[in-house]
Amino acid sequence: MGVEWGRIIELMPDIQQAFFETLIMISISFGVAFLIGLPLGILLFATDKGLFWENRFAKSVIGFIANMIRSIPFIILLVALIPLTNLIAGTTIGPYAASVSLSVAAIPFFARLVETSFREIDKGVIEAAIAVGATPFMIIKDVLLPEAKPSLIQGITLTLISLIAYSAMAGVVGGGGIGDLAIRFGYYRYDNTIMIVTVVILIVLVQLIQQAGDWTSKTIDKR
Asked: Keywords on this record (predicted)?
């Protein structure tokens, strides 16, 4: 099962297009996951027992919804969200359509990582902030986010890597990207060269993101 360089050169425009589509899916879905998942993660943490927004009902509802979405296999979620995808994107195929399902899957995933990051903070630091009269907003801005920054960077890294895997899976249902290229050429046409190329691209992309995340986390960790 060798690599045919002539075949790679021939399909280079398709490979570049697939890579660009993968970046579109990851960028959109992570942006949505960050904007919605970060506040949700804060709520999951702050509404817990003994904290400044303690609310058992809110904690239970948000936690249940997050767990429910996370428990659904992504391929099933893709199919189940077709009506929502069509409503938002106006189509059910392509990278922008796939971004809808990717975003829905990534939001609770990232929210739980944010909650976990905050749980690693020494509660004494939070209690000290409350004792000096800090408001909830000040605690979040000046205590939680700065203290949890290295862990949050790791959470962002893990979310991006998970989205790469999910985006490849989205190719099965016409989502575009590297996964779609592997299915159309590598699987349906038994093109081993394309299968190898797509796997290598995904591995390199994951490694680059992981290395960047590790370096950034260590750089900003002042402990």
From this structure: Cell membrane, Membrane, Transmembrane, Transmembrane helix, Transport
